[in-house]
Give the backbone structure.
Amino acid sequence: MAGHWRVATVAAHRPETPTARTLVLRVPDWPGHLAGQHVDVRLTAEDGYTAQRSYSLAAPAAGDLIEVTVQRVPDGEVSPYLVEVADVGDQIEIRGPLGGWFVWRPDDPTPVVLVAGGAGIVPLMSMVRTRRMARAKALFRLLYSLRSPAERYYSTELGSHQAGDGGLDVFLAYTREAPEEVTRPPHRLALSEINTHGLPPDFAPTCFVCGPTGFVESAANALVALGHDPRRIKTERFGPSGGRP
Ligand SMILES: Cc1cc2nc3c(=O)[nH]c(=O)nc-3n(C[C@H](O)[C@H](O)[C@H](O)COP(=O)(O)OP(=O)(O)OC[C@H]3O[C@@H](n4cnc5c(N)ncnc54)[C@H](O)[C@@H]3O)c2cc1C
């Protein structure tokens, strides 16, 4: 059952950026999940105080191993623990998989536009990885808005062509600082770029938009302005805008 709490054990972790890391969690009897779903994580302090937050699943399950990638929010209750403190062997409680709307199924041939802001790349990466693993052929366009090269998640995997990624195009929109070899001056993801690097409304793509609240609203509005059917635009908000990625 997705609704009950399970004990997960940290099996491994790896840094994605100086302020974000991926945790591999072992969850006995994990039922499997769809790309785009998330889990709730619950931490309990020694005095019994609990704090609970949602984290997207970052990859397809490998047996009873699942992955989440967490961005440290300064002064946050939960994310600093997951990014800086949790270690191999530690146990946390999780509930899931959760969410049935913001999901992509590999047997769906509909073209897909993915628009990520900052940590919003996490569930979209799960879709990219699921597509690769299933050798699915749906056209994928990924637009990833991020502040600087140092904040780039999954850089090896998204930076080079991976077997099974034919039909996937990736566009990186640096907003504050770009690598030297990138000629695009840093600025926010523009409507014209979503037009150029996304897919035309005629293709009737499903659009998945994920990130901080302000980013999601402006990207979804841009897609509508470009003529995409609002019913095909699926959004997931990670929380306060906290400054745009
Ligand atoms: C469906 C869903 C999936 C999510 N998936 C992920 C994920 O894959 N990776 C991930 O890192 N986060 C994800 N989040 C966000 C996550 O649930 C937490 O909100 C985040 O980790 C902050 O929690 P915290 O306890 O550290 O901070 P809090 O103690 O809740 O907040 C501390 C301060 O930071 C501000 N704040 C809270 N959340 C954010 C935020 N997201 N951005 C900027 N400022 C914030 C608060 O307003 C407050 O001032 C997801 C959220 C949802 C709803």
Q: What stands out?
A: The chain has five helices and eleven strands. Residues 38, 53-56, 68-71, 73, 75-79, 119, 122, 212, 236, 238-240, 242 surround flavin-adenine dinucleotide (CB under 6 Å).
